[in-house]
Amino acid sequence: MLPKLLILATTPVIMFASLFSSSVALAMILVGPTFEVALQSYVGILAARPVIFNVGLALICAASLGATFGRGQRPFQNAFNPASISMFLLVFLSLASLGWTAADADTRALVKSSIPYTILYCVVAPLLVSRVRDLRTTFFTVLILGTAVAAAILLNPDATMRSGRIDIKIGAVDSINPLAVGYLGGVLFITAVIYRPRKVAAWIMPARIGLAFMGIGVTLQSGSRGQLLITALMAIIFLPLSRKIQNFGRFVALSVGGVFALVAFRLAMGFFITYENEERWSFESLSDGGGGRIEMAATALGDLLQNPQSWLLGRGAGNFVTLDASHSYVHNFPIEAITELGIVGFMLFMFVVVTGFRSGRSLWLMYRDDDDYRMLVSTLLAVSSFTFLLSFKEGTIHDPGQKIFPLLLLARIARNEQQDASAWTHADEDGDEYGDEYAEDGYASEYGEGYDAARAGRNRDSDGATGHDDQGTDPSPA
Asked: CA 414: distance to chain centroid?
């Protein structure tokens, strides 16, 4: 009863908050796939009619964007950028390739059914957050909502283990998707380890350890081996990048944080790996899982090599099902892109990926001297890398949203921040006359009191770092 009350109490609060904060709405999308199945396991009508959750989430995000626009802000700034345009072209090519694919009608219908999800993830989601500072609310909400969802899954009274994975019935015939559960565990662990609230209290570190413990626990219960390995790798890489080590004290603090993350990881493995799922985490099982993915990739590439007339535009969406009837897709975005969408599709996909990560790198370099923004950018980079690496083992290029949208978000935020920095520079050079015109264009209303602070030249400290006041208001748009 308690986990049901927790998820049902958290849901309306988060949804209501999303109407007033697009950053909260983005958190819902980040947790969305697991959030949906957790609710379905407790609420029968949502299991019988999944469209209710998906349409509801889309309407909330649309209302949130509308409210943001109504407040005089600019949620559509740089909506069209090189990464988003390439993504649109990739989706168009995927749909167009149904004209020459040999896939059956069911596979064609599956590709078409992904369109609403693609719109939500690739069009709407990147518009919800426009600046680095807005990510603070997003990641804090991810911790709250992710905890409620994880608890609802781990404590579900109907949960059982099947083939080393957690199994919860949804409706009469369906079961919870273990990959969605493992995805939540990874996002929750990464966020708990790298993100830190602005106000540091005595309870913050124990709480973060608990959240990291729960994140790994969810991943272990899902039996998602790839998620666990990628999650650990992201924490190892991005935790050091999220902190600037200026002195020995900072080094000690970072080391302690790493130790706590390791302790939470180890405790979770000891607690959640039991006789029911220990075989799935054996070395032999890990090897078998990787071998299967490699075999599917080799099958898809072999078919393409035998058909050089398809090298440019590929074999068509869903073609893999004609090669392996037991799998609808190859479970590898890059391989699927080049085999089913050809060289053109592969280049579009890689352009989105490279642009996203280059944008993330530029943001990190821009704010490397700012402790707060550096941490927020590192967290988003870690989540983006996590979802991208998952695309090498699960999902399909014809439904790319969940794996790719963090990169689209990085690309848009970077362009916004770079334009803001350039505009402030010109305003400083040209004096107050230009600055007043800049304010009339809507920037002053968007940034509020921070606009005047930035114009006064108080947005940078002596080291060139972006300043922040104690109330959480960022005195610069960058």
From this structure: 16
pLDDT digits (tens, 9 = 90+) for 18-36: 988 999 999 999 998 899 9
- Contact present, 56 and 14 (Cβ < 8 Å): no
Whole-number Å distance between alpha carbons of 138 and 135: 5
Confidence of residue 245 (pLDDT cuts 50, 70, 90): confident
Of the candidates 397, 416, 394, 386, the one whose C-alpha atom is nearest the C-alpha of residue 476 is: 416
Instruction: Please give the backbone phi and psi of residue 396, each rounded to the nearest 5 degrees, phi first.
Output: -135, 145
pTM: 0.85
Contacts 24+ apart (CB under 8 A), 414-418: 414/359, 414/360, 414/362, 414/363, 415/78, 415/81, 415/359, 416/77, 416/78, 416/130, 416/131, 417/131, 417/132, 417/363, 417/366, 417/477, 417/478, 418/362, 418/366
pLDDT tens-place string over residues 260-275: 777 777 777 777 776 6
The whole-angstrom separation of Cα 381 and Cα 364 is 9
Tokens representing residue 458 in the block = 């108080």
**What tokens were used for 455?**
């114009």
How far is the C-alpha of 408 from the C-alpha of 127, rounded, in Å? 9
Joined tokens for residue 474 = 């960022």
**Side-chain half-sphere of 420: how many Cα atoms within 13 Å?**
29
Instruction: Classify 64 in phi/psi space as left (phi over 0), alpha (psi -120 to 50) or beta.
Output: alpha
- Domain edges within the chain: 2-418, 431-478
The 8-class DSSP code of residue 165 comes to: E
d(CA 121, CA 108): 21
Rounded distance between C-alpha atoms, residue 377 and residue 363, angstroms? 7
Q: Which two tokens stand for residue 457?
A: 């030249």
